Every structure is written in structure tokens, then in C-alpha cells.
Amino acid sequence: MQSNVKQVFKLLPAVLVLIAIIITIMTWVNLSTLRGFFEAWSRAFFFATVTVLPIGGLMFLALYQFIGRVFRKWPEMLRNLLIGIVMTLILESIMALTTTASIQNFQSINEFFDLYMTSFLYALPVGLLYASVTAVMVNFEVEQEVIARAKRQ
């Protein structure tokens, strides 16, 4: 258990930086100006850190178990990549929704939806890149662990 907690705290800075980058992109796309940027960004970052981060952690555990059972014959790296892609799509859609809602006064639902989609699509490549790199890194770490255990035996 203590090892798992260490792993979470080890990953936390990288996750917070990713959230900050994604929120920065979404805030900039919505505002297109520096006026009010930091206030809007900090409000969105705080919300994402307090709500999306814990939800994402719980969702990751459930998704990891589900994908592990359904796609058990797939190589681990492909399963990790699938988890990353699904997590990216869900969490970025939530962050785009909350960031867009907290920034703008909307004249219509169409205007809100357009800004939401723009925020989501601009930040999506960053999230997908992170998911891909993480899948490869996790696979590499697992392989190194297996090699280390085999050498000890």
C-alpha cells in the first residue's frame, strides 16, 4: 500500500503540469486576450485540481480493471494506450466544459457549444500525446521491473 501511495505522489507533479497546460490552452482559446486570463485560469485550474483529479484517479482504477478483463489478450502497452485515450477524452471533455462555463457569458447554447468544442479540440493533441508517452513509459517501467526481479531470482 505504501508503495502505491509513493507512486501516486511521484506522478502528481506531472499530472498537475499536464492539467495546467491543458487549462492554459482552453482558457486562452476561450478568452483570446490577456484581460482576465489569470483569474479565469486559476479558477479553472483550482476546479480541475479539486474535482477532476480525484474523479480521474477513481475512473482510472475502474477503467484499468475493466480494460484488463475485456482486453486481457492484448499486449499491456496497447491496453495502457487504450486507457490513456479513453481517460483523455473523458477528462478533457469535463475540463473543457467547466473551463468554458466558468469563463464566458453566452448569448446562446450554440455559442457555448462552439467554444466548448474549440477548447476541447485545441487541447486534445496535448492529452493524447501525454497518454501515448505515458503508455510507453509505463510499459518500459514494467519491463525493467520484470528484468530486475528475474535477476534477483
Automatic annotation (TrEMBL):
The chain crosses the membrane at residues 12-31, 43-66, 78-100, 120-142. It comes from Thalassotalea euphylliae. This is DUF2798 domain-containing protein. The lineage of its organism: Bacteria, Pseudomonadati, Pseudomonadota, Gammaproteobacteria, Alteromonadales. Keywords: Membrane, Transmembrane, Transmembrane helix.
